[in-house]
Amino acid sequence: MIKEAKIQSDVIITNQIVDEIRKLLKQYENRSIFVFTDINTTKFCLPIFSDLFKTYPISYFEMEPGEENKSMETVVDMWNFFGDNGADRKSLVIQIGGGLLTDIGGFAASTFKRGMDFVNIPTTLLSQVDASVGGKTGFNFNGLKNEIGVIRQPNRVFIDPIFLKTLESNHIISGYAEMLKHGFIFDKKHLDLLLQTDIVQIDSQDVSSLIKRSIEIKDHFVHIDPNEKGIRKALNFGHTIGHSLESFFISNHVHPQHGYAVAWGMIAELYLSYLRKELPLSQVDHYSNEIIKHFGDLPIKIEKKHYDTLLQWISKDKKNEGKKINFTLLSEIGKYSINEDATQEEILDSIEFLIQKTANNDEI
Ligand SMILES: O=C(O)C(=O)C[C@@H](O)[C@H](O)[C@H](O)COP(=O)(O)O
Fold first, then answer.
1. Which domain of life, per UniProt (predicted)?
2. 30 CA to middle of ligand 1, Å?
């Protein structure tokens, strides 16, 4: 049985992106238009719009890519750019980029003069299936991922698989992790179909239907609980431990794509689901092996001496309430349970499980 989930946000999946943006711009005649890109999307994605954009007076802002630039300094640069180029509350910001750009640009647009319209044109698989939908905007602070931010829905999201052709395979695989997550929490069929799919080689028609299903699942949670007071936390499966690994790697100058950290986080949280929710160990093993097939081993060796640091990152997760660490776990594949507690020992056991599953080589 297919579990019902419909896209209710303003998301357009198209293979005619230029025509869609032409229609959009007509609705913003005589307004000031801002286009945000990063140096990669300026080169690989912006040219598709050049004939259309040259007929409008557009102010272009380009940011440096890289997690280290998801920072307050970049937000300040964006605010200054708005101020210097006459932005007002009726302006429109068109964001062409991955999740990092749409998150931080969405924050700048949402806060300048208390909020301007912004639309997302996500160009990575991760941003198409996850980051650009749902309105989480923000930036990293004090080493913590997305520590500062607001939830504000983009006015529209335009998704065209054409942009995926510009990506290296590790970027595709990174987005694939969030799609697997959608399967884990809501739809075992979607998960199993994804695991049988070579996501790097798949043709655009087939990838469009997988993207659509992932967005349906994501939007199902967002629509019911836009401010993440309850069931939206399901979308954070794999992220409690995943974000702590990501912060740990980054603080050791290793920068895996976000989806890789989520994939490894999901392995640990599958094991935690076995400890806390009786998810069968045979399934934990099966799906962990499948994840490792696609994502490989941890990029640096994690040892007992790092456990305290990892626990500290976990203790700062946004889902926590006071001292209670809140995990999203699975009682079955396709069935989530939010606000699940775990002891320190159980958390470390699941990290041990992840380490055993991934035979990493390099010392820090
Ligand atoms: O949209 C959501 O809700 C999610 O949790 C989606 C996550 O996949 C995404 O990585 C999100 O940015 C993480 O949010 P955070 O609140 O844990 O920073």
1. Bacteria
2. 35
* pLDDT at site 362: 52
For ligand 1, the distance from its centroid to the CA atom of residue 235, given in whole angstroms, is: 7
Give the residues surrounding ligand 1 with Cβ less than 6 Å away. 130, 134, 136, 145-146, 178, 228, 232, 235-236, 239, 318
Domain 11-166 falls in which CATH fold? Answer: Rossmann fold (3.40.50)
CA of 236 to the centre of ligand 1 (A): 6
- Pairing label, strands 156-159, 117-122: parallel
β-pairing, 144-151 vs 156-159, is unpaired
Specify the CATH superfamily of domain 169-207+220-357: Dehydroquinate synthase-like - alpha domain (1.20.1090.10)
ipTM of the complex model: 0.96
Select the more confidently predicted residue: 234 or 255. 234
Q: Where are the domains of the chain?
A: 11-166, 169-207+220-357
How far apart are the C-alpha atoms of 49 and 197, rounded to whole Å? 31
Q: Which two tokens stand for residue 163?
A: 């942009």
Q: How confident is the model at residue 360 (pLDDT cuts 50, 70, 90)?
A: low
Q: What is the DSSP letter of 234?
A: G
